[in-house]
Amino acid sequence: MTLFNNIISVPSYLLFHTIWFLHSISRPLLLVSILCLLTNPTAASRKLTLIYTSLLYLAFSKDKKWKVPNDDPAAYFTKELGGTKITTDHGTDGKIAYKEKTVILIRHGESTWNDTFNPGDRNKVIFVLFFVPNLIYAIFIELYFFVSGKDTESWFFDSALSEKGVKQSEGLRNFLRKEKLRLGSATKGGITGEQKAIKLLLALDEYSSSSHVISSNLRRAISTAAIGLSERFASSIQNPTKKDTILLLPCLQEISRNPDALSILPPNGVAHPTWCDTNIPGVPVSAFSALIDTKLHGGNKSLNSNGLIRLQQFCYDVFDDSKLPKSTIIAAGHSLFFRSLFQMYLPRGLEHVSKKKKLVNGGVVMFTLREATLEKKKEYMIDPGSVAVVYGGFGKHTKG
User: CA 106 to CA 202: how far, in whole Å?
Assistant: First the structure.
């Protein structure tokens, strides 16, 4: 047998022994579960409910069962606004009202789920060789959370940031800090698009109160926003009159049927800090829960929901002044949701990297989202000329 065949056989060998091991402990595990139910019924029942809900979504979720419509969003917007609609009155139309907002997307750092199941930028051979040991480790961590009654913690459900994910979020924070210093030393003159993005992200100077920070209801997105924008929130915590928060917007929940895409947080519940939120500079643990605004969090996405429904809802919410009245929306979220957003709202005939590649972990991109209000409906388009990478990038095309 060749060396290659020996290497390939190792994961199968480990997988066999893993299954044997899990089968061997199944009876003790059942007894421990019963004990947990008796000693801490609330926490145990929440964990068991998560398992049941995950199985339901794996079996019946329609989250990915949708297609991008053929209708081209560019057809509703004039050429002056980045569309293809022909008009004779300089970008206006008597029957159409146009609005625009600046949107900045931040993709979360790597999660514990990613760490276990996705190779990412790791060597694929190493990933395969260590997959089973890493899976066993993750299972033991999950069992520890179960038996210890930590019902707001999980490795698999609503997975938190991994150590690598924390470093990626800190990378964004360090980038913003460096760019802030550059802004301070810059000479007087016009502001560039990137400089504007930095000021918006950190709520500086003339942009101190012109943006909302929103997030998916999943922990990895919340933590990425809290860590990456910690200078912004530290300033707010020191000056409570600013009232700067991270508003949870349920429609941003990831497009996936996997357990890591299900929220642990109960409807309108208190967002407790996870392990990676306990050492954020300027954001003490005692202030973390108050930083997270859950008034719009109505719980998990519906079993009958899908990505298209939530993408449309996101656009509605961006322009809903009762929810988000400010001119700029900074949204922390997920790769599939963001890629689908570009596929859905960039002009159909446009070739763009954002339609094919995922925004990298911790990456930031800015664009103008436009709304056209017709007589009986609203249409949305991302202005193709406005898309600008601020940090990171798409696929291997990175910046920062």
Answer: 13
Decide if 222 contacts 246 (C-beta within 8 A): yes
Label residue 121 exposed, middle or buried (CB < 10 Å: 0-12, 13-18, 19+).
exposed
| Euclidean distance between CA atoms 14 and 141, whole angstroms | 19
Q: What is the pLDDT of residue 139?
A: 85
What does the alpha-carbon distance between residue 81 and residue 62 come to, in Å, rounded to a whole number?
34
* CA 78 – CA 4 distance, rounded (Å): 59
Nearest to 172 by CA among 396, 395, 389: 389
**Positions of E strands within the chain:** 97-107, 211-215, 246-248, 292-293, 328-333, 364-373, 378-382, 388-394, 397-399
- The mean pLDDT of 226-231, rounded to a whole number, is 96
Using DSSP's 3-state secondary structure scheme, residue 80 falls into helix
| 259 vs 265: CA distance, rounded Å | 13
Distance CA 371, CA 4 (A): 56
**Strand ranges in 210-346 using DSSP code E only, listed in sequence order:** 211-215, 246-248, 292-293, 328-333
- pLDDT for 4 equals 44
